[in-house]
Every structure is written in C-alpha cells, then in structure tokens.
Amino acid sequence: MKSELPEPPEHPKSIVFLGTPEAAVPSLRKLVEAGFEIPLVVTMPDRRRSRRSAPTATAVKQAASELGLRVSENAAEALEVGADCGVVVAFGQLISEEILSKLPMINVHFSLLPKWRGAAPVERAILAGDETTGVCIMRVDVDLDTGPIYSSHEAVIGDDVTAPELTKELAEIGANELVSSLRRGLVDPSPQLGTPSLAKKITRSDLKLDWRLPAVQLNRFIRVGGAWTTNDSSVLKVHSARVVSGEGSPGALENDLVATGSDLLQLLVVQPEGKNRLAARDWINGARLGSHPRLGL
To answer: Is the C or the N end of the chain the one with fewer CB within 10 Å?
Structure first.
C-alpha cells in the first residue's frame, strides 16, 4: 500500500528545479524571471557525446550556471535546502518515494494525460498520428505520471512538424503554464480521466523503415528523428522526406522516390553510413545504385 504523499503548498516561494535537456531550460528561466527562489538545480551527470569527446554538461546545468544557481547531480540534496517544493521537467529518472515523502513535487509533462505517460510522449504522439497533444502541470506521484492535474494546455500537431520542433513548442507552452499555475495557486488538482497509454522510450530498432508500411506512416518515423534503412549492406539515415502520390514495389528506388505500401516517399535529406548528411539527389547522383536499386534489403 502506497503511503500518502505531502501536498505542495498553495503558493510555493522556494523551489528546487530538477531537469536535464534543452526542453527543461525554458521552465527554469521562466521561474527565475518570475521571481521564484531557486536554491538548487538538480540535473543528470555530464555525458560524453562520443568515446573521444570530453564530458558535456547538460543543457539545464549550463543554463543554471549562467543564472548563477547552485547545481547538483544528487536528487537527495533537494531535501537539504529548505525548499517548499520541487519542479520536475524532463529530469531523466524517477524520483524516489523517500524524497517525495519529504518534499512535494510538481511536473511539467508534454502530453495530455493520461495519454502518453512515460519517457517519449512527443515522439509517441507523432508516431500514432495524433492531431493534438499538449502540456499538463501535475503533482508527482510514486508511480509514473499518474498524479492529479492542476492545469493543462492543448496544442495542435502539424502535419509536417518534427519531434524537436514540437518539443520546443511544448517546452515554451509548459514554461508559461507552470508559472501561471504557481501564481494562481496549487489547489484542487483533478484526477486523470480516460484510458492511459504508455510512451515507451524510442529505440533504434523502432526507427528502422519498413517500406511495406504506408508512406504517411513512414514519414512519421522520419519526423521523430533517427529513421534509417539500408542500401545494400550499408545504413542510410533519412532525415527529411515528403509523401507524394504514386505506387510501386515497396523499397524500390527511382530517382529520389521510394515506393511504399501506399504512395511514394520522396527523399529530401539523407546520410550515408560514415558520411555527413546531404541532399538526397546529391547522394543519388554520386552513389553507384545499379539499374534497379531497392532500399531495405
């Protein structure tokens, strides 16, 4: 049986901020601009982008340093600064029940809960072909993204919007909604209603293009980022494409058009294995594709 967690105060003044990627930075900056005291920022450890590169600070750590805020990589230190509550935005790990039992927290989540609980709500919304998504300001519970909601804001998912573009938009909406909720007061949150869905983390295998699928569905994988196929035995990343009318044998490549299960996909920007990204037509003109090239074999 889960223990009862403390409620955040109606008008918290001192806030510990927990976040990691660029999408969390607008909320941190908005809190500072709005005059909230931020005694501590907690973020994930520095990471190497490649084996040979030096460790790189997270986007939140860099922003916090610019703002003159104290930074830690240990979430337990949130209990040591006398804050009224914590604000979590894409932190990257679950907050332990031990910490939540002593410091109430709220979360800026990039979906309209209970839809797309979990690590990849933006990507899953695009892959599902959702027409709308949004942001929820919710109380953090022990279970993943199950807490009650203080406020929400809906946003339209454009037909061609990419996951990075949509994430940036939701980050700005979330930052504004966060400050508005704190100013109105954290009272009477509403329970989540509807059927939950889980936004599992996207893996590389999820993003392999299966040319038997319809072009519109394949383009969603490309819009998420990291989509790939193969040309002979080499990996070919597809960074940008568009759906055009037509038909053919799935995977067959003619000029810059790939046949799919329904319609064609026009390749716009690709990246051959071990090389930089380039216009698809430039790749085709320089590659030795043979007389009847086919992708994904």
So the answer is: N
> For residue 241, what are the domain limits?
205-286
Mean pLDDT on 62-72: 98
Residue 153 main-chain phi, psi, to 5 deg = -145, 125
In this structure, the answer to whether residues 130 and 70 fall within a common structural domain is yes
For the stretch 68-106, pLDDT in tens is 999 999 999 999 999 999 999 999 999 999 999 999 999
Q: Are residues 161 and 210 in the same domain?
A: no
Of 199, 231, 246, the last residue of a domain is 199
- Per residue in 165-213, pLDDT tens? 999 999 999 999 999 999 999 999 999 999 999 999 999 999 999 999 9
d(CA 185, CA 148): 15
> Which of these three, 174, 199, 224, is where a domain ends?
199
Residue 290 in this model has a pLDDT that exceeds 80: no
Name residue 238's beta-bridge partners.
270
Statement to judge: residues 155 and 74 lie in one domain? yes
Q: How many CA atoms lie within 13 A of 108 on its CB side?
A: 33
- What does the alpha-carbon distance between residue 4 and residue 20 come to, in Å, rounded to a whole number? 28
Residue 291 lies in a domain: no
User: What are the b/e assignments for 101-115, b being 16+ CB within 10 Å?
Assistant: eebbbbbbbbbbbbb
> Going by C-beta distance under 8 Å and a sequence separation of 6 or more, which residues neighbour residue 74?
42
Count of domains forming the chain: 2
Q: Which amino acid is at 237?
A: K
